[in-house]
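By way of example, we now present a protein record of this kind:
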Amino acid sequence: MPTIFLKMRSSISISSSTFLLPLFFFSLVSISPSLILSASVVEDLNNLHPPPDFNSTIIKNCLNIPSLRYCNYSSPLDLIEIFKSTIVASHLCNESTNPNCVETFPKIDLHSRPKIAPLYLSFTFFWKYCPLTILSINISNNSLNGGFPSHVLHCSQIQSLDLSHNKLSGDVPVQSLSQLTNISLLNLSYNHFSESKISDSHFFRRFNSSSFLHSGLVPDRRGFKIKVIVFLFGFPMFVILMVGCLGWICLNRPDFLPAVLRRKYKFTPAMLKAATGGFSANNLVGKSEGVDIYRGSVRDGSQVRIEIYRDEVSGEGRRRFTGECEILVQLRHKNIVKVVGWCDNRRLRAIVTEWTDGQNVEMWVVGSAPPWKQRLKILMGVLEAMRYLHEQWPHVGYDLRTCSILLSNNRQPLISRFRIGDQISNTRKIYKFGILVMEMVTNKRPREEFERGEEEFIEWIRMHYPENAHMVVDERMRKKGNTVDQATQGIGLGLMCSDLSRERQPTFDVIPSMMSKLSDLCRVPSSPDYKISHGGKGQGHGRNQSR
C-alpha cells in the first residue's frame, strides 16, 4: 500500500505528489523527526500553505477513492479547509497517542485534556472532513461547557463516543446520533443535558442505563421520589418556619417589615433593646425613681430619647397609657418635643421622642450663667407651648421643672414630659409657670434646696421682694447693669402666677402681654413707666400700671 508523505522543509513548502494516503479519507501530515511537535497546531495553521498543484492532487484522489468525504460535497471544494484539516489531523493523531500516525488514525483520545480539547473541538473544518479511519472518540473529563458538540457526529463511521464527565447542557441531537449506525459504545454520563424521553428512541435502546448516569436525559426516579418526599414534608415545614419567623418579626421586630405593614408609632421591647445596645449603661443618660432615660438609634438611623418606666401597672393602666400616647404623637409645636412612638408591653412601658443634643434648662442656667434676656426668651417659648396645649389639648398636662425642659440645637425650649388625664386645672398650670419663672431668676431648685419645697421657696422670695429683690436674683446676673431691675419685674410675674387665688392669678389670656412688656424692658433702659409689683409680705399681690 503506497504511503504518501507531506514533508516540511525549511521553506515550509509541500509537494502534492507526497500528499495522499489511501488508508485515510485524506492523507496525514508526516513531519520530519527533527520537527515533530516543534510547532503548535495553531502556528502550523498560520504558517503552512497548500502547494500550487494541490487542487490537481485532490481531484486525483477523488478519482482513485470516491468514498473520501470531501469528494462527496456538491459545492466546490474548499482547498484551504481541506489542507488545514490535514494539519489538524497530524497534530491530533499524535496528541491521541496513536502508534503510527503515518499509516493510520484509529482514535481521537482527548480524555482529561481540558486545555486542548476545546481547541480541537473548535476546528469545525476538521470534523467536516473527518478521516474515515477514526473509530473511537473520547473527549471525557474536560469540564466542557455549552451544548452538545454536534460537529463530531460528522464522523459517522465511529464505533465509540465518550462525552462523559463534562458540563454539557441543552438538548441531545437524537436524530443525528441515530445516524451513527456502527456505534456500540456511547457514554453521555455526568452532564447537564435537558431531560428527554430517550426510551422512545429505537437508537437509545441499544445502550444500557450506565450510558446516561446523571446526564439529565433520564428521569432520576429515586431522586424524584426524594424530591417528592422533601417537598411533601419540607415545604409545609418551610411554610410553618416562615410563618413563625414572620410572626416573630411582627411581634418583636416590626421595624424589619415594609413601612406599609408596620404599626405606626408602635415600639416593642426588642426594638428598644436593639436601639440602646441592650440597654447599655453607655447609653443611659438619666435616671430617677422608676424612670430610666436612654439615648438610642432606631433602625432608620435616627437618634431618639427613650424614657422607660419600670413600674408594673394593671391592664387598665396599660390601656390608659396607650390612650395617652396616642394623643402625644399628635402634638405638633416648635416648643414641644416630638413624640415618635411608645411601648406598652406588660413588663416595660416607654415613650420614644426625638433626640436633642442640647442640655436641659437646669444644666444650661447652672453651667452657662445666661443673661436675663436669654432666660426670658426661654420662658416665652415655654409660654407659647403652654398656650398651644391650652387651646388645642387642654386635657394634656406637662412638667415645667427646669430639669424636664430640653433645649434644642438652636436653643429653643422643648417641653418633654407630659401627664394626661390627671385633671390638672389651668390655675395649677399657671402656678407651675410662676415657679419656673422664679427658678430662672434665682437659679434655685425648690425641691432640692428647700426643706418644704415650693412652699418654702415662695416664702423665701416674698421675704425679700420687692425691697431686697436683688438678694434672690442669681448673683451672676447682678453684675450686668440694669439686669437686676428687669429680673425683679420677672419675680413679680412669678409671684402673681404662683398665687393660687383665682382673683389675683393672671389668666392665659393676660400672661402673654405681661411677658411681652418684660421683653420690652430688656430693649430699653430701666424706667418706672411699667412695674409689676407685689404687695408687702403676706399681704397678697396685685397689678399696678403707672403712666
